[in-house]
């Protein structure tokens, strides 16, 4: 299903309707696991699926929410909270801060497109 | 004396010369020996170890009883199921301190002041530099013929009450009829004992020599009010009556009592609670002065005429009197600590104020309760119908509070007692009228030096200081800083009020907000959702919160909606509120795989059921383990395998076990009367019925139940939120237990219930908890936080004092009717099944990061080094996944 949308070096990952509002889903992008989150306004945000604290691939299964203005996800494993846009850890639960990688995401004609090549958030 | 350093701890020192007094100033720690390991000894040791920062003392405590110091004041709660461990005072770590040696089961029989040694009944000799007698009192048994018959008890120690309980149980088994009992003495202890007898189903009579009950604490009108209330509770009271003889039956055990008026009554058990005598025998034998009514005479520094011998607690005769209450004993312990460490503290005089709950009846007496002050005025409020009598004693100008008596409703005690000796400043009647008594009239402000906690001598100022300077911002912190409210607890309402006022003053509001999105507590949100009948998170947060929620408030709202009958936990928007366990209805494990637990009600499972579970485990290559809740946990299931696993389990007749939810987990049971030689009721049958009734119930935290078939308690039911233990007559219901990091034993809520009453009471209890507890608060913590604690819950769920019993039952009935297996529903819903995919863009791809190695014939997750180090890895089983 991974189609190359060459002009912008974007990768079509799935349909927007494959994602449930305010929940995450995992995707495989060039062999790497990515967590996609659909917000209430249908914006889609992408971070690494690997939870840097537990080492398990579970970020997509966390609870989506807000801290102030920021959209967040809480790790389902040890509850660290991350900014979904920047990847920054907002609540380290007493551990040293670690970030999540983020990917720019576009939505076109109901298709979710991920910019290739991970970028540090 | 360097040569003494090598001396063993305990030796025969008979031939040694007395230690040189100068020795006490030498550098080595001084030896403090405390005789008696009761309440006051405990306080002394606790205070001394805390304040002796230079290591001036080593302490040896010699206690005759087999138990470490326990809460004697709370002795009667033994009959409500509190055992020695739960009654133990303070932090048990105290006895691990290197500086202290607690020797139990060790009675001191000799004191040699010249040699400065004490000798125990077993011949051990302990040398002391300083000796403290904290031997308390013994029960006084009047010289009545037959007072030593089997079946006659005193009421002072844990062993006394354990013996009494055993006797009543054995007799009840022998005679197939309700037992009759009598209590000699109508004072505080007598009424405590009468309550204990009543709680064991013994029909009893209280016999008091004086013309009224509790003659020491209350006046005539108060005594009569008390008698009326107690008679109404089914206890017979005979005042102005002396017991002339106790007589035995054919088996040699107590059978009857005769009284001064010539009448007699049949009895199966007698408790003598006719007063106490100080245990001053050591002091007497050592030639030390004792008071006119006993007790080692001490000065205001708690020192006897021998400068190396002190006394504290009930054995001390201070200012010419012995004191039978714990608070003055604690004051003495504090004073002696200060003196031992070189301070100058002196005994300030005893506060003999008391507040008690006897048989559920409040009785309080404080200050000049009998209006002995010349010119004193009395203001009385009495409502005989309601069983209330209250009296305030005021100075001749009616301005200064001198004392008072409260019977039937002592809620004003906490605000009144600290005002003794002060101008009230408000109309005294305001304290006596039913409304507003507890909080005290508005505008009443305690001066800093007013003592709020008399057990621990904590002033209002100390509480304020704990809040403003030491940063305490909840009741637990204030208790920790000041010790206020850590003994009898009667001052807690005042302490709480002082704390809240102080917090508000310093601009801190007591934040009980759930998270940044909701100002409310879970209980408040529950009420809002219940009343407004809102059904979606979006509506709830937009009307009553802000933002879009988080991992704290979303699951709370989901739980509230589920408890209020919101349909399937994953229906519509609710799916987005659940944490991953509830979302995929399995338990997330450390590597990102899940475990699955099918429900096995009551732990009862057929051979076919076991085979079906075994086959699923084998076919999917899962690790299996038996849980503590008597069921089977299957580990290593990948997200996308969950529906296939459950299709097989559902086909074999299993349902979701809700191991993933903040909800009912299991009802553990023993095999009960069906198989067990000792069982008296069908514990498995009841456990299965309860588990089927409450399965799926969402709650503030996980809920565990247990049912045992007899008092041997093999199901460990008292370690559960709700524990049921079979009795000959029915079931005893315990609540508020848990295991885990802070284990708690459940406490008795109601006794000898039949099946219907039991279920109705559990219905109400669970629903009341679901409605009012905080997020992630187990029942034990909830009971502890709740104003009024277990008594309050008993009033609500057993006595229906709030009139919400029917409502709670109805809510539970709605839950029972609305129950459907969550997994069966998901399997039937293609929309729900979509989320069980490893990758949205590669549904057939297996997550390769999940890797396992064999161990003891099963799988376990590979460690990081095993992954990179080329160990033999097992990929997850490739069973075909049907969609
Ligand atoms: C049922 C009951 C209810 C009560 N209710 C209240 C109440 O509501 N409010 C209140 O203020 N007070 C109450 N009291 C009284 C309170 O318990 C006592 O005032 C308090 O325990 C006194 O403490 P103590 O350390 O002086 O004596 P204790 O607690 O009696 O301790 C003395 C210890 O010394 C041991 N001992 C004695 N002689 C020796 C020896 N020779 N060698 C070694 N050990 C020895 C004893 O075995 C005992 O364990 C109640 C008492 C009872 C029994
Ligand atoms: S609690 Fe009683 S009935 Fe149950 S197994 Fe133990 S002894 Fe038997």
Automatic annotation (TrEMBL), chain A:
The yes or no answer to whether the keyword RNA-binding is present is no
Question: Keyword set for this entry?
Answer: 2Fe-2S, Iron, Iron-sulfur, Metal-binding, Nitrate assimilation, Oxidoreductase
Named from the GO MF annotations, one term is: nitrite reductase [NAD(P)H] activity
> Which segments constitute the Rieske domain?
11-114
Supply the InterPro entries for this chain: NirD (IPR017881), Rieske-like_NirD (IPR012748), Rieske_2Fe-2S (IPR017941), Rieske_2Fe-2S_sf (IPR036922)
> Record's PROSITE patterns?
NIRD, RIESKE
Q: Name one Pfam family in it.
A: Rieske_2
Tell me one GO biological process term: nitrate assimilation
Do you know which PANTHER family this protein is assigned to? NITRITE REDUCTASE (NADH) SMALL SUBUNIT (PTHR40562:SF1), PTHR40562
Q: What is this protein called?
A: Nitrite reductase small subunit NirD
Q: Please tell me the species this chain comes from.
A: Auraticoccus cholistanensis
TrEMBL record, chain B:
Gene name, per UniProt, is nirB
* Annotated Nitrite/sulphite reductase 4Fe-4S domain residues: 661-800
The alphabetized UniProt keywords are:
2Fe-2S, 4Fe-4S, FAD, Flavoprotein, Heme, Iron, Iron-sulfur, Metal-binding, Nitrate assimilation, Oxidoreductase, Thioether bond
This protein's source sits in the domain of life called Bacteria
Enumerate the spans annotated as NADH-rubredoxin oxidoreductase C-terminal domain.
Answer: 353-417
FAD/NAD(P)-binding domain: from which residue to which, for each copy? 31-316
Write out the GO biological process terms: nitrate assimilation
UniProt-listed NCBIfam families: nitri_red_nirB, PRK14989.1
Q: What is the name of this protein?
A: assimilatory sulfite reductase (ferredoxin)
